[in-house]
């Protein structure tokens, strides 16, 4: 039996990053090393700088230069260690020269395995790599590694990154609501707190703050998801009733909250104000509406990047899944599995049990996982018990990063330099 | 020798709350119990519900009903356990009936010690309690316990609450900047991240994010304090230069940033947009200016209540100081010290050493501690080495709260009911 020739692995981070996407990178590199040491035909992991942009520009980082300790440190590093990009591979007909270039880069670096770490659009890019391999006669496998704080990927129980964002947001809501409760009873009282979270089309992150509730009248009192058209009269009435009953009202609003016409409210408002589209802003907009309608003082926080980079408050379950997805992607790729995403399958809610199963990459791009109606309360303004049962295990367990003498999380990590290019430059 | 008659302690939380103000309450209650057990003439600690409002309304909570464990749990509870209020005691001439009422409440509950836990205005209220005692012939001492995330109290090295807010903000800036770095290199790149922090008149919290820097070009790249009038041309030029040099630019902006005319920018803008004053909003405003001027994509987070309630990321030094200030306030009050604030004195920067000393309450209300010019870099857009030396020890050490099975900090705490009133009702 002739030993198969070791082939290299191409890994890249695609789309917005998360608090644990680097754990997936760590899982990929660690598994590839272990397999190589065990004699498997696998070479080095080349990470593209800035996602697909780095593939096209042949900006590749040989992770072989990373010490084992540096690989392990990827577990505790938020952001995207190698840089990410929103660039996706277009279909061949739209841009044949990009396909040509990618094929050349794969050949030049003897890539046998392509691992794309991203969300919906990135899974389609992973799928196109399968096509690309066939078109150019390259012997490659392509595997998708799920990642998105939005949790809008289908065919997986959850996407790594979401659990940590959820843990951060639920904690923030619980903490801020204690502040609100303290400030709501005295003079010049604040009566409403609004937390604006990410989620353009899906309310998963907004919904996750329901986990902050530890009693019937605990915060959040209202959760406004993009799946439920905003009805100002109903929301104002609900806020007013909550203030009357509880003394204050805490609200989570998803950035993509839309009116009955389907248009996002924040964009509408900002287009009117500034003459151009500006994302974000639904939180302050809602605060202004509530303040104007009810005459109560409102506070508003906008979590923005904080919610997807808060590694200091990562979910241990999420971190473990992120690592496992990377490691398993390498194993499957080496076993010749291609055109699949490493999906998380839920075996039980409590205690949470899960394993990893392949999901076809086909068509993931066009199907967005929205919050289903039975995950919402009857009035559409909160989470149902079904949603809580789904969400609860995803934020379980702590996984603190080490702290330095400076009193801050120690995120030192040195990204190696790019490999010397083997091809002529390519401009994007 | 006749044993002195035990007198009760009145404690209240005044102004905005912090992540560690309840630790001060815990220190007060714990010290009073220990002293009483040792035979000192001290009774129970009565906490007013919702600050001074609760004193006037005779809404008092007898903390004797709290178990020792419940007192210790105050160390780990954000928000204000007994409720806070922005209500301050007016001078006698402005409102003699309020003085009359307070005196009646103090008499009815045999109060011998008044401990006011708050900021500048609250220290003046503490001082007025001394006057009130004299005017009504009450044998009371009044002691101020410093508390403010703004850190604008004079005569103390730092105010409890600030260090934890600073730790949270510096961590958030470090984490978000890793996200920004990852997103700045690819397609549809984000080039600027703005973190809006609290601080109407003083830039302490904004400045504290300088601690996130762990290298010469590390975030934050610009810090905009209320002490430095906003000069759009200079700031836009600095942002542009930073993007050219680093690839991206992270900015901290204090909510109270003002233009050359001294008017807060956020208020100006909101007054124009909405026809009424709306606080907050300088972050999104700045994002819009940068985006318009430089044509780069900006992200903006607004920390709001999150920065002062993030007990999950408290500074251990801050927590210890908060507790010590409460405990020492009781000891001093029992020793007959009155009209003083329990101030923190710095003995050394590194390693940080401190003790507690009395500071006169007189005139604290009118003097706000701003960021001094030598704490700013030469261009006024960053922290100086002097500022770093001052700030660094204040965020040292971790003090995680316990986490429950739900994956969230366990902040359960049951506030006892109000004592039955002994006086007729009083309406505010």
UniProtKB/TrEMBL annotation, chains A, B:
SUPFAM superfamilies per UniProt: Phosphofructokinase
Cofactor field: Mg(2+)
Site (described: Important for catalytic activity): 147
One GO cellular component term noted in the UniProt record for this chain: cytoplasm
Listed EC numbers: 2.7.1.90
Pathway terms, separated by semicolons: Carbohydrate degradation; glycolysis; D-glyceraldehyde 3-phosphate and glycerone phosphate from D-glucose: step 3/4
Start and end residues of each Phosphofructokinase domain: 9-311
Keyword line: Cytoplasm, Glycolysis, Kinase, Magnesium, Metal-binding, Transferase
Any one biological process term the GO annotation gives: fructose 6-phosphate metabolic process
Catalytic activities: beta-D-fructose 6-phosphate + diphosphate = beta-D-fructose 1,6-bisphosphate + phosphate + H(+)
Positions of the catalytic residues: 150
Keyword Metal-binding: yes
UniProt subunit comment: Homodimer.
Function (record text): Catalyzes the phosphorylation of D-fructose 6-phosphate, the first committing step of glycolysis. Uses inorganic phosphate (PPi) as phosphoryl donor instead of ATP like common ATP-dependent phosphofructokinases (ATP-PFKs), which renders the reaction reversible, and can thus function both in glycolysis and gluconeogenesis. Consistently, PPi-PFK can replace the enzymes of both the forward (ATP-PFK) and reverse (fructose-bisphosphatase (FBPase)) reactions.
Record's protein name: Pyrophosphate--fructose 6-phosphate 1-phosphotransferase
Lineage of the organism: Bacteria, Pseudomonadati, Pseudomonadota, Betaproteobacteria, Rhodocyclales
């Amino acid at each position: 039996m002739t030993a198969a020739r070791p082939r290299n692995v191409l890994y890249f981070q695609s789309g917005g990053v998360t608090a644990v996407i680097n754990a997936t990178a760590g899982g990929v590199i660690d598994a590839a090393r272990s397999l190589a040491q065990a004699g498997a035909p696998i070479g080095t992991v080349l990470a593209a700088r800035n996602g697909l942009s780095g593939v096209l520009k042949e900006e590749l980082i040989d992770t072989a230069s990373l010490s084992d300790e540096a690989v392990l440190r990827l577990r505790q590093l938020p952001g995207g260690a190698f840089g990410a990009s929103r660039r996706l591979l277009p279909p061949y007909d739209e841009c044949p020269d990009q396909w040509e270039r990618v094929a050349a880069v794969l050949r030049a670096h003897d890539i046998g395995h392509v691992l794309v770490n991203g969300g919906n659009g990135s899974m389609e890019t992973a799928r196109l790599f399968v096509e690309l391999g066939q078109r150019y006669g390259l012997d490659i496998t392509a595997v998708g590694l799920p990642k998105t704080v939005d949790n809008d990927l289908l065919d997986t129980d959850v996407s790594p990154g979401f659990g940590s964002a959820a843990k951060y947001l639920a904690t923030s809501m619980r903490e801020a609501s204690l502040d609100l409760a303290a400030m709501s009873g005295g003079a010049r009282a604040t009566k409403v707190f609004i937390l604006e979270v990410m989620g353009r089309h899906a309310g998963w992150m907004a919904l996750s703050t329901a986990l902050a509730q530890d009693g019937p009248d605990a915060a959040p009192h209202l959760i406004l998801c993009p799946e439920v058209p905003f009805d100002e009269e109903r929301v104002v009435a609900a806020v007013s009733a909550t203030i009357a009953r509880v003394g204050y009202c805490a609200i989570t609003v998803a950035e993509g909250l839309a009116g009955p016409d389907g248009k996002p409210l924040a964009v509408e408002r900002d287009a009117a104000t500034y003459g151009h589209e500006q994302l974000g802003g639904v939180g302050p907009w809602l605060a202004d509406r509530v303040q104007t309608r009810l005459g109560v003082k409102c506070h508003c926080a906008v979590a923005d990047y904080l919610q997807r980079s808060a590694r200091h408050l990562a979910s241990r379950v999420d971190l473990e899944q992120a690592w496992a997805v990377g490691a398993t992607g390498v194993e499957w790729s080496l076993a010749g599995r291609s055109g699949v995403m490493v999906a998380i399958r839920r075996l039980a809610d409590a205690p949470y049990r899960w394993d990893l199963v392949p999901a076809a990459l086909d068509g993931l791009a066009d199907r967005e996982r929205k919050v289903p109606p039975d995950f919402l309360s009857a009035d559409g303004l909160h989470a149902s018990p079904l949603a809580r049962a789904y969400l609860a295990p995803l934020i379980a367990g702590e996984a603190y990063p080490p702290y330095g003498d400076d009193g801050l999380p120690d995120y030192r990590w040195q990204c190696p330099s790019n490999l010397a290019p083997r091809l002529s430059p390519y401009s994007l």
